[in-house]
Design a protein that fits this description.
Blueprint lengths: L5 H13 L4 H8 L3 H8 L12 H32 L3 H13 L7 E6 L2 H14 L4 E7 L5 H12 L6 E5 L17 E7 L1 H16 L2
Helix pairs in contact: 2-3, 4-8, 5-6, 5-8
Length: 212
């Protein structure tokens, strides 16, 4: 897993040290989770002098504006795509599900978390149709779950390799016996880094809400 991201870590460090980019700028550029980028560069301060030149300030503002315009363009593209996409009832279902269960605060990523297999599959199928970015699959399980069995269950459901499902035990994990409500198959998160799909998703959510 770490080796797969070596070139991205090197790029993040380069953007930090050679281009004086902030954490937010690097996250925007590489479309990876903010926590991942932070871990890579947290000990590398942006090299600055006491007096930042006007040219540096102008360049930083230009970069910020560039990405803001790209996000706005993606939002407008989402608006234009909405009428055709919403002809498919499952797309509207996906948007509504994402409103309820999807991550919305980090503009560089989309994440859907649920224990209901049919909901996860619907969200995953649409995200795969809408983005060609790499997916991350995280599984939360309880102490008395069979982890390998759960990984195989989700892998079969989503047509992926079990090796792509990264499992972590829930911090409040206890025995399942005696519970009235149980996450029989654990809780799966499906995540991708895609800033511009996130902007489109915001457009689709806004449109669907406006129709209620």
């Amino acid at each position: 897993m770490a080796r797969r991201y070596d070139h991205l870590r090197d790029k993040a460090i380069e953007l930090r040290t050679q281009h004086n980019m902030t954490l937010e700028d690097i996250v925007e550029r590489l479309a990876l989770p903010k926590t991942t980028i932070y871990y890579w560069i947290k000990d590398i301060p942006i090299p600055r002098t006491e007096r930042q030149t006007e040219a540096q300030l102008a360049r930083a503002a230009q970069v910020k504006r560039k990405y803001a315009l790209l996000r706005e363009a993606a939002y407008q593209e989402g608006v234009a795509q909405a009428p055709e996409l919403l002809k498919d009832a499952t797309f509207r279902d996906f948007v509504v599900l994402y409103m309820a269960e999807g991550a919305k605060t980090q503009r560089n990523r989309l994440s859907f978390v649920n224990s209901d297999a049919r909901m996860v599959k619907l969200a995953h199928d649409w995200l795969k149709r809408l983005s060609n970015r790499a997916f991350f699959y995280g599984l939360q399980y309880h102490a008395d779950h069979d982890v390998e069995e759960l990984k195989q269950y989700w892998a079969d459901l989503l047509n992926i390799s079990p090796d792509k499902v990264y499992a972590s035990r829930k911090s409040n994990s206890n025995e399942l016996s005696g519970r009235q409500f149980r996450s029989v198959h654990g809780i799966l998160s499906v995540e991708i880094g895609d800033t511009y799909l996130h902007a489109k998703m915001q457009a689709w959510m806004d449109i669907v809400k406006s129709q209620w």
